[in-house]
């Protein structure tokens, strides 16, 4: 079965909110009804209820990555602390990673406080070590655990150890984004769905249904940024695909574990990610789908049969099962040229994104940071190293298409080479 995602489909039919019905004025206008836009609206509304905040969404809240992701609210950041230290200094690097770790708890706190039942379970995340090659790479990691400790959490095949972090929670991403949309509406935020943003400039967001004028504009489009006029080379939309099994029997979970719903991956280079859902399915995804020329995004790109088959085969390899697959889907995530997410406000235009697939928690931190920037609050958040960062633009085509796809292919080949070395 194919749908925008298992997560969204599990919520039943979605009724879109009314679209924009002509020109409008506001204090803050937000382009994008995913996590970044909604968290920004939430913290603005909590801090200053008098502000008129309007969110514009092309489809419906959660249609993009916020309703399709793997459900990891993690403290992961795509730039290592060591690299951040070299560029920004050790104190700033530590603050960035600490803030993301704390954000995992903030997501859970707000969900509980606002009555958003998103199946939040903070079991941490485990990267399994399953070959001697991976073992050599992982042993120096401060989160390294031995084989017995790793197997106590997840009894996959060939486990030699693992790298564990407490800073991750599994959740139902669509319940979170839809619940957040309902919450911000209760707080007085206006959401217009079915309203595609065509152009952003100082003081204005232009759509086919009218123009919203506001002294502060927020661009929160993540992987869809490339479709905005003047932004085609800012963010590369790269696809990540997922499968979800039918509910698996209790004897499987007794054998495999994941009792605290720890999220899991392994130490291969081509990213995979999984979780045990609240209704005892395996939700499992990974990279490997191609980047499409000209940063194009189309519905048919969500479905790549060979990638779905590779994901199913990986579950068989990990757990010794041939699971019944209930859902298959995909979607674009946003990758900046230097893999460095950013948040900022300049000349009345704010932005956040480029999370490289780790945006469930990072978008919350971005929303809090944007709220402080917009309200003129000098805080620890506004001094984090991603604030004001500008990544250089991606190369023009065909260099962009060639470079990204060669990189994806090379990563897969390196994993195959490692498997041969370990055999």
Automatic annotation (TrEMBL):
SUPFAM superfamilies for the chain: FAD/NAD(P)-binding domain
EC number: 1.-.-.-
Domain FAD dependent oxidoreductase: 27-373
InterPro entries: FAD-dep_OxRdtase, FAD/NAD-bd_sf
Superkingdom as given in the UniProt entry: Bacteria
Molecular function as annotated in GO: oxidoreductase activity
Keywords: Oxidoreductase
Protein name as it appears in the record: NAD(P)/FAD-dependent oxidoreductase
Species whose genome carries this gene: Actinoplanes subglobosus
């Amino acid at each position: 079965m194919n749908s925008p995602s298992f997560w969204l489909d599990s919520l039943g039919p979605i009724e879109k909110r009314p679209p924009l019905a002509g020109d409008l004025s506001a204090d803050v206008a937000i382009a994008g009804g995913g996590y970044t836009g909604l968290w920004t609206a939430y913290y603005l509304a909590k801090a200053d209820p008098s502000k008129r905040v309007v969110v514009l969404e092309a489809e419906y809240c959660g249609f993009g990555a916020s309703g399709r992701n793997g459900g990891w609210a993690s403290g992961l950041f795509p730039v290592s602390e060591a690299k951040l230290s070299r560029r920004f200094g050790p104190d700033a690097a530590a603050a960035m990673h600490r803030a993301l770790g704390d954000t995992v708890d903030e997501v859970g706190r707000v969900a509980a406080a606002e009555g958003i039942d998103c199946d939040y379970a903070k079991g941490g995340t485990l990267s399994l070590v399953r070959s001697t090659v991976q073992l050599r790479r992982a042993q120096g990691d401060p989160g390294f655990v031995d084989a017995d400790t790793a197997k106590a959490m997840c009894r996959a095949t060939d486990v030699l150890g693992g790298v564990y972090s407490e800073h991750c929670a599994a959740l139902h991403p669509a319940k979170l984004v839809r619940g957040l949309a309902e919450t911000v509406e209760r707080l007085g935020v206006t959401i217009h769905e079915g309203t595609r943003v065509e152009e952003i400039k100082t003081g204005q967001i232009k759509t086919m249904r009218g123009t919203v004028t506001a002294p502060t504009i927020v661009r929160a489009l993540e992987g869809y940024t490339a479709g905005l006029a003047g932004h085609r080379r800012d963010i590369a939309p790269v696809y990540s695909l997922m499968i979800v099994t039918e509910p698996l029997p209790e004897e499987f979970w007794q054998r495999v574990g994941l009792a605290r719903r720890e999220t899991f991956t392994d130490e291969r280079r081509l990213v995979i990610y999984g979780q045990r859902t609240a209704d005892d399915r395996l939700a499992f995804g990974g990279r490997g789908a191609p980047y499409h020329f000209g940063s194009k995004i189309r519905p048919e790109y969500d479905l790549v049969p060979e990638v779905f088959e590779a994901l199913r085969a990986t579950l068989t390899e990990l757990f010794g099962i041939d699971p019944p697959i209930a859902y298959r889907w995909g979607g674009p995530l946003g990758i900046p040229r230097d893999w460095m997410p950013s948040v900022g406000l300049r000349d009345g235009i704010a932005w956040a994104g480029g999370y490289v697939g780790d945006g469930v928690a990072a978008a919350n931190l971005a929303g809090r940071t944007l709220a402080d920037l917009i309200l003129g609050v000098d805080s620890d958040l506004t001094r984090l190293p991603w604030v004001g960062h500008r990544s250089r633009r991606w190369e023009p085509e065909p260099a962009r298409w060639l470079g990204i796809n060669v990189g994806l292919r090379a990563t897969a080949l390196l994993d195959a080479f490692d498997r041969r070395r370990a055999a």
